[in-house]
């Protein structure tokens, strides 16, 4: 979390990076978050996502796991390895089996995700969780 | 009785009889040994003034069932085997020694210690009977000359039977008879068969045939050694079933994953539609509607692919000209391909015969390979890329080839292309195309081979050995 910024309970000015290879999912999450006062930036694979994360330093990242080219796990590792990005909270949004949650939470090479959502998401819970993480 | 002069006698003894490597003894009617040679003495010890049964067996009375003395009665020579003590075997021959009147006055006993040979024979016997295989010796007419107990216990009595009658209850020789090959070329041959047991059950066995050649004569007999592999076959089947079950599990998990992704798209569409209505935002509403349509059509293509994968039907083969199949694909894809800057070209046409194929199934395979190739070309950085399509016969196989100079695949991707739900096309692919293709090709008795290198393109070849093509239905 980035305590040096002013906290805004309505999420205004908070920037969220959405990474998913599925354009419809990106559109959905972006609309949902924007409707609730967040600013969003979008990437469609792990590589693009990582570039944007470094450049824009978002307040939170909503990340898919299974993507062609660079996967979400790879991006998690890269985020962890870069001091500039290693503090950004990550919310996983994935279709992968729930058992995966236990797996990814116990890897040394990545920071444990701040939250884990299975597709399709419960949008109220998703928004509440993000608000809590940033709040 | 003196037949020879004493000098001659001495010469006979020392120069002749003592040199003979057989035990020689001359025995009178009272079982008394009147002469024995040096070899005899070295085997049985002192014999002078002793009777044969004393010397041989240490018995005071004649041996029960003595065979040798019969020669005194009928004057005929005899040959028999004698066990001395508990463990020494002798081959004994007796001959009558006549006087000038023609009466039998002595018998000459010649014997040889055959214990080593007997032991060797016993070992062979034990080996023949106890080795955990079925063994039979057959002649050129496939008549069984000899078989071990294990074989007769399993397949029944072999007397007067031919091997194929006994093992398989057939009335003629097996088509892939390895024994016939051994008779033909004098070599060893092996093949696997299914036999029918004495109790009517089935057994799987591997048979190895070895010619039984004595010296340089023509091979008259072949030894058949059968190893029961029924248990191994059962294990193989269990393993296959387990793999199949695991594949079903993976498939279901993969399917669930795909559906979850699509559902997320549907929910997104619903959100856009309902929030569009709320905000009276027509653009948002129509965007949501598009999302819904796209994701619903994804469900339908997933279900279609999944069904064609899960069908598991046998190929419905009929005689088809493979070139016709290629023509159809060319017609179907040429325009679409050129529309997106990919040239679909036909390899130079070669004459191929009509073959039994399931035209719909092969059409599906070619469709999958060609659309993959076109996708690969679109991902390529090349300005103009080409997909080459053709069919030819090579090394007894019918080969369909789809080659592209698109983006190619690295080792990691090449390894995974035939696994369930693997796709490099993100949301566009169902990950079932190549899996289905592979399955159809296997059902046609063939396989797919892949050559690819990143940046240069890929070649997919469907190789269908002609001898294994399906039968016409």
Secondary-structure blueprint:
The complex is a heterodimer of chains A (135) and B (473).
Chain A: E1 15-19, H1 23-35, E2 39-43, H2 46-56, E3 60-63, H3 72-81, E4 90-94, H4 99-105, E5 115-118, H5 123-134
Chain B: H1 6-16, E1 23-27, E2 33-36, H2 38-44, H3 52-57, H4 70-74, E3 78-84, E4 88-98, E5 104-113, H5 115-130, E6 134-139, E7 144-147, H6 149-155, H7 163-168, H8 178-185, E8 189-196, E9 202-212, E10 221-228, H9 230-279, H10 282-310, E11 318-320, H11 322-339, E12 342-346, E13 355-357, H12 359-379, E14 385-394, E15 397-404, H13 411-416, H14 433-443, E16 447-453, E17 457-465
Parallel strand pairs in B: 12-14
Antiparallel strand pairs in B: 1-2, 1-5, 3-4, 4-5, 6-7, 6-10, 8-9, 9-10, 11-13, 14-15, 15-17, 16-17
Helix pairs in contact in B: 9-10, 11-12, 12-14
Descriptive overview:
The complex is a heterodimer of chains A (135) and B (473). Chain A has 135 residues and is α/β, with parallel strands linked by helices. Chain A has one domain (15-134): Response regulator (Rossmann fold). Helices cover 39% and strands 17% of the residues of chain A. Chain A is built from 5 helices and 5 strands. A 5-stranded parallel β-sheet of chain A has the order 2-1-3-4-5. Chain A starts with 14 loop residues before the first strand and ends with a helix. Chain B folds into 4 domains: 6-114, Beta-Lactamase (2-Layer Sandwich); 131-228, PAS domain (Beta-Lactamase); 234-310, Helix Hairpins (Orthogonal Bundle), CATH 1.10.287; 318-468, Heat Shock Protein 90, CATH 3.30.565.10. In chain B, the strands form 4 sheets. Chain B has a 5-stranded antiparallel β-sheet with strand order 2-1-5-4-3. A 5-stranded antiparallel β-sheet of chain B has the order 7-6-10-9-8. In chain B, strands 12-14-15-17-16 form a 5-stranded mixed β-sheet, covered by helices on one side. In chain B, helix 9 (230-279) packs antiparallel against helix 10 (282-310). Chain B starts with 5 loop residues before the first helix and ends in an 8-residue tail after the last strand. The model of chain B has no long low-confidence stretch (mean pLDDT 87). At the A-B interface, helix 1 of A face helix 9 and helix 10 of B.
């Amino acid at each position: 979390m980035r305590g040096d910024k002013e906290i805004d309970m309505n999420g205004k000015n908070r920037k969220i990076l959405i990474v998913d290879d599925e354009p419809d999912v990106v559109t959905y999450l972006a609309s949902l978050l924007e409707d609730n006062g967040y600013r969003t930036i979008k990437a469609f694979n792990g590589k693009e996502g990582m570039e944007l994360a470094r450049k824009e330093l978002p307040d939170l990242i909503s990340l898919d796991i299974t993507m062609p080219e660079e996967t979400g796990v790879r991006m998690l590792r890269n985020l962890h390895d870069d001091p500039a990005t290693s503090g950004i909270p990550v919310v996983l949004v994935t279709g992968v089996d729930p058992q995966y949650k236990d797996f990814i939470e116990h890897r040394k090479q990545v920071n444990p995700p701040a939250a884990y959502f299975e597709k399709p998401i419960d949008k109220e819970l998703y928004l509440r969780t993000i608000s809590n993480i940033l709040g | 009785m003196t037949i020879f002069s004493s000098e001659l006698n001495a010469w006979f003894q020392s120069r002749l009889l003592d040199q003979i490597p057989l035990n020689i003894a001359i025995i009178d009617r009272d079982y008394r040994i009147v002469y024995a040679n040096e070899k005899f003495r070295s085997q049985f010890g002192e014999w002078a003034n002793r009777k044969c049964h004393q010397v041989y067996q240490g018995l005071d009375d004649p041996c029960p069932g003595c065979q040798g003395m019969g020669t005194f009665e009928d004057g005929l020579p005899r040959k028999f085997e004698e066990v001395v003590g508990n463990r020494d075997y002798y081959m004994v021959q007796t001959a009558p020694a006549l006087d000038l009147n023609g009466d039998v006055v002595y018998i000459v006993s010649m014997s040889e210690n055959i214990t080593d040979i007997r032991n060797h024979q016993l070992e062979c016997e034990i080996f023949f009977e106890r080795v955990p295989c079925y063994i039979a010796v057959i002649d050129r007419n496939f008549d069984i000359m000899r078989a071990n107990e294990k074989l007769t216990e399993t397949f029944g009595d072999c007397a007067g039977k031919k091997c194929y009658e006994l093992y398989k209850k057939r009335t003629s020789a097996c088509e892939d008879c390895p024994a016939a090959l051994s008779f033909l070329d004098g070599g060893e041959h092996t093949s696997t068969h299914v036999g029918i047991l004495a109790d009517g059950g089935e057994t799987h066995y591997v048979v190895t045939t070895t010619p039984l050649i004595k010296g340089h004569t023509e091979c008259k007999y072949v030894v058949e050694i059968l190893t029961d592999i029924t248990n191994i076959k059962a294990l193989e089947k269990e393993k296959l079933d387990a793999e199949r079950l695991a594949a079903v599990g993976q498939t279901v998990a993969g399917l669930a994953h795909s559906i979850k992704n699509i559902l997320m798209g549907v929910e997104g569409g619903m959100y856009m539609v309902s929030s569009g209505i709320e905000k009276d935002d027509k653009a948002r509403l129509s965007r949501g509607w598009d999302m819904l349509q796209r994701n619903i059509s994804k469900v339908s293509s997933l279900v279609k692919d999944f069904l064609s994968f899960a069908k598991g039907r046998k190929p419905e083969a009929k005689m088809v000209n493979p070139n016709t199949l290629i023509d159809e694909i060319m017609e179907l894809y040429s325009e679409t391909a050129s529309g997106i800057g990919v040239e679909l070209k036909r390899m130079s046409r070669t004459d191929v015969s009509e073959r039994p194929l399931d035209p719909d199934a092969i059409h599906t395979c070619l469709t999958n390979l060609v659309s993959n190739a076109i996708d690969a070309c679109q991902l390529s950085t090349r300005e103009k890329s080409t997909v080459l399509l053709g069919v030819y016969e090579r090394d007894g196989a019918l080969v369909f080839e789809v080659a592209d100079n698109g983006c190619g695949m690295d080792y990691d991707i090449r390894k995974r292309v035939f696994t369930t739900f693997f796709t490099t096309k993100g949301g566009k692919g169902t990950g079932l195309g190549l899996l289905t293709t592979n399955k159809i090709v296997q059902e046609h008795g063939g396989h797919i081979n892949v050559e690819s290198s990143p940046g240069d393109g890929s070649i997919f070849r469907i190789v269908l050995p002609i001898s294994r093509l399906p039968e016409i239905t």
